[in-house]
Design goal:
The chain is mainly beta. Helix content is 0%, strand content 49%.
Length: 124
């Protein structure tokens, strides 16, 4: 059974940095697109960043471009989200997700497997 286990969330000061990790079991990143979504209270879940399994292309939502970086360590079956220059509006529950599509999908329905979520809180 596929499991995605996130870690690294917590409290960060505005302007600071945080790194989220997601370790996957039972499949290899080369055949899946990995995404980081976030959901703030009262808002829809949105794709923040994604990394395709085949060619390693990336996607970032406009609000995090230049600040967040998605990367992977295939040997560890782990995908990371490096969050720099964090802003109060980045506060949310962050979810790791995996989808079998070859191209990066930006919809929730494009992803099959989900982690349990990790809370990111930003103090100003």
């Amino acid at each position: 059974q596929v499991q995605l286990i996130e870690s690294g969330g917590g409290l960060v000061q505005a302007g600071g940095s945080l790194r989220l990790s997601c370790t996957a079991s039972e499949f290899t990143f080369r055949t899946y697109t990995m995404g980081w979504f976030r959901q703030a209270p009262g808002k829809e879940r949105e794709l923040v960043a994604a990394l395709s399994g085949t060619v390693g292309s990336t996607y970032y939502t406009d609000s995090v471009k230049g600040r967040f970086t998605i990367s992977r360590e295939i040997a560890r079956n782990t995908v990371y989200l490096q969050m720099n220059s964090v802003k109060p509006e980045d506060a949310a529950v962050y979810y790791c997700a995996a989808g079998p599509q070859l191209r990066i999908g930006i919809q929730v329905n494009d992803y099959t497997y989900w982690g349990q979520g990790t809370q990111v809180t930003v103090s100003s």
